[in-house]
Design goal:
With 300 residues, the protein is mainly alpha-helical. It has 17 helices and no strands.
Length: 300
């Protein structure tokens, strides 16, 4: 965005950027594109961005800001040199450009090296900075690798569910987001790269992003919100949580059992066991068939 390296320095962290109008418009566009509900929380924002292969908007602002800093130092203009020196002298004032940049850099893993570069008027390797910022952003997802959707109170259940069962794998090595490596891997889920009817694409988006009305999600937004472990399925007597996996693969309600029996190609025996059974089900090559089944379950 034009001039963001000057006016956006107060929003160079995720928490400060989500309240900006630019972020709200960006997220609203992505949600409309996917066909999911427009209600916004800090948790489903992460999922929508990852589903569409996008970085938070502050990433682009921060990158422009560091590029602007490097250009200031490489300029031969004596006025700009005086401005840089004056900014460093006023770096303790919270309303200055330099203070806001230094404050934002403190959140990054290599903050000491970056802060020293600013204070000593040195350029910053932009490629390495982008990689560090990307790793910082996806680090929150990596922390979920050892958790499951059923582990309460550790983090957002929506994020855990998405990461464990639906999200495109991020890779486990540092530098995974490097552009030279990234172009060798799929960034978008398969259904967004195929030409399928919009209603079926929307059904998959709602399932993957917790935009459905299964009790595990509906009771989360009720006036009298129930704890996660009490969101029990009302369609069977198994006394288990009515979540995505239960409705699609397990619930013994006669309508759902009949649907699974009629669609044996979509429900083969290998989905009966295993911790990744829902991920395996959703990522079948027959995306059209899976989306058709999911659309029926969403209105069940």
């Amino acid at each position: 965005m034009y001039g963001c390296q000057v006016w956006a320095t107060f929003s160079l962290t995720y928490d400060s950027s989500v309240t900006t109008r630019a972020h709200v418009l960006h997220l609203g566009f992505l949600k409309k594109l996917l066909g999911v509900k427009k209600g916004t929380t800090f948790t489903d924002t992460h999922c929508v961005l990852r589903e569409t292969g996008q970085m938070p908007i502050f990433f682009y602002w921060f990158r422009c800001t560091i590029r602007f800093w490097n250009n200031l130092l490489s300029s031969n203009n004596p006025l700009l040199e005086k401005i840089v020196r004056a900014g460093l002298l006023l770096a303790n004032r919270s309303d200055t450009w330099t203070y806001q940049v230094l404050h934002a850099l403190q959140d990054l893993p290599t903050s000491r090296q970056l802060l020293d570069a600013i204070r000593s008027r040195q350029t910053i390797n932009l490629g390495q900075f982008e990689l560090t910022l990307c790793e910082h952003i996806i680090g929150g997802w990596r922390d979920l690798d050892i958790l499951t959707p059923h582990e309460a109170y550790h983090s957002s259940r929506i994020m855990r569910t998405y990461h464990t069962r639906f999200g495109v794998p991020l890779g486990n090595t540092s530098g995974w987001w490097d552009d030279r490596k990234r172009n060798q891997k799929p960034v978008l889920p398969l259904y967004l790269r195929l030409d399928i009817p919009s209603n079926l694409s929307r059904a998959l988006s709602c399932l993957r992003l917790s935009g459905h009305n299964f009790l595990v999600q509906r009771m989360r937004h009720d006036r009298n919100r129930r704890p996660y472990e009490l969101r029990i399925c009302d369609r069977c007597d198994w006394h288990t949580i009515q979540d995505e996996e239960h409705i699609l693969l397990d619930c013994p309600h006669e309508h759902l059992v009949r649907l699974r029996t009629q669609q044996q190609l979509i429900f083969p025996p290998q989905f009966e066991d295993g911790p990744a059974r829902l991920r395996t089900f959703v990522n079948q090559p027959d995306t059209f068939g899976v989306a058709s089944i999911v659309s029926v379950h969403l209105i069940f």
